[in-house]
Write a structure and sequence with these properties.
Blueprint (H helix, E strand, L loop, with lengths): L2 E2 L2 E2 L3 H38 L3 H15 L4 E8 L4 E8 L7 E3 L3 H9 L3 E3 L11 H6 L5 E8 L5 E9 L7 H60 L3 H16 L3 E8 L4 E8 L3 H4 L3 E3 L3 H9 L3 E3 L10 H7 L6 E8 L2 E9 L7 H63 L3 H30 L7 E4 H16 L4 E7 L4 E4 L1 H18 L4 E10 L2 E8 L28 H11 L3 E7 L3 E9 L6
Parallel strand pairs: 16-18
Antiparallel strand pairs: 1-2, 3-4, 3-8, 4-5, 6-7, 7-8, 9-10, 9-14, 10-11, 12-13, 13-14, 15-17, 18-19, 19-21, 20-21
Amino acid sequence: MQVIRGESRESPSGLVTGLSEKLNELEQAVVRQAERFTAVLDIGTQISAARDVDALLRLVMDRLTALLAAEASTLFMVDEDSSQLWSRVLRGSTLKEIRIPINAGIAGHVVQSGKSLLLADAYADIRFNPEIDRQSGFRTRSMIAAPLRHVSGRILGVIEVLHRKVNAFSHEDRALVEGVASQIAAVLDNVLLVEQLRSKNEKLTQASDELAGAVRDLDVLYEVERAVSQAEAQEDLLERILNKAIAVVEAGAGSILLMEEEKDALYFRSAKGEKSDALIAMSLKAGQGIAGHVAETGEAVRVLDAADSEHYDKSIAKKLGVTIGALLCVPIAADGKIIGALELLNKKGGFDHGDERLATLLAGQAGRAITLRRSREEGERRGRMAAIGQMLSGVLHDVRTPMTVIAGYAELLADENDPEERKSAAQIILGQLDHLNAMTRETLAFAKGERSVLLRRVYMQQFIKEVQEQLEQEFTGTKVELKVQAEYTGSARFDENKLKRVVYNLARNAVQAMPKGGRFTYAVAREADELVMRFSDNGPGIPPEIADKLFQSFVTARKKNGTGLGLAIVKTIAEEHGGTVVCKSKPGKGTTFELRIPAGAPRD
């Protein structure tokens, strides 16, 4: 080497060698940049084409890790619901998942600041959290962290690439990570949106299927309810429910068994299928077989083959000579108590969960229907017994007056020596006994809804006299004054015994309404072609709450021992004669009943 004018100069050969090396380095750098550019373009193409989010992110992180010769990498996503960052993709780590607070560590700082970081030595930065290294065993030195920033400015997550060496990454590497992060963020939101829409669509499809199932269930329950309402007896009710259950689950056979507590057994109350007629005559002991187990425990049994159940009792199938395959048995419950079991058999391919749900719904419907029918039948039975009791009470109520007359004349007979008087008293007693017999027949006819009257000519003077004598006996011992007004004493046509019963009923009601005393007036008149009888008292009047239903059966005005039959019978007798009876009453001012019937005879 020569020194010219104080400067050193290389030989021409040395300059050529140096220039060649520089050109080689530049060429290699250009190649590396070209390779990176090509890789980034390839990543962008794959990102744009991808639809599976997880596959996309795994692919990108694998390519990026290899491109930077990194030893580990992580893609964190923001979980806004929990305010955490979670590792959706982990490369080069023994951990399966990392979750950290959204503002913790380097990743948290990048999310909060929205700026990327290049760290030559992570442990030299106070923001670095070494806890993850301790958990994984990885020793982080160099690190690049870049945000996944959407075009809207929202941060979707963070990309981190890691190396065990210090100064393993350059600014060009950071730029590469930032470029890839931008591409991911540019399409990730749309891809995630598609995924969310797909998930929502699946949920809507599932909800639609569930809704269709619910509508089907409602249709089945409606049909069962309609069938139940048309059933006239429990046997018919159970048969309709069983037919519907077999049809909707496509079973080959089935039965309904009900518990008989006093006998501690299950009885086949309805059966369909092969040899079903023979089943009706059979029963199961408590806990016997699958149906007995279901009725005892309340737990449904669903098996592909009946023999697969430990509770299966093959003796019944063997006795009937039938084969049982798939079986579904659910409990029938009502008011929190198991009352039986619904058993369905031999469905091709077996019963599924939907069949069990439908069978459970139908069993519940059956339980409610059975309980309702039993309650209704019990109510009807009690009602009939109560009606019979009330009817008997009514008979006894009406017997009082003739019995009082009989008792009075019987006492006279005991002390009377005059044959004529004794004969007269005996005739009166016999007449009252005839009246009792007629009264009994009328009561039974009323109870049966029969209406018949024996019309004959009656002389009112004699009729009124007999009625007055009996009323005087009835009023004896009371504080009620009897007043009789015979404005018409001619003849009329009516059923004498029934009209007497009307008089006695209304007079007795008046006496009972005035325990402290009062006045009762019985008046007979004729107006045109009508015979009019008025019954008035100055008692407390009719209570307003029963005034509009006074003539209905079993309605009473709070009278002790009252049956509510008296006025109903009065109305029936009036209508049987083609007449009417009306009531006028004012609280505290008394009550008047007015009976009008056709006189049926010319005015005498």
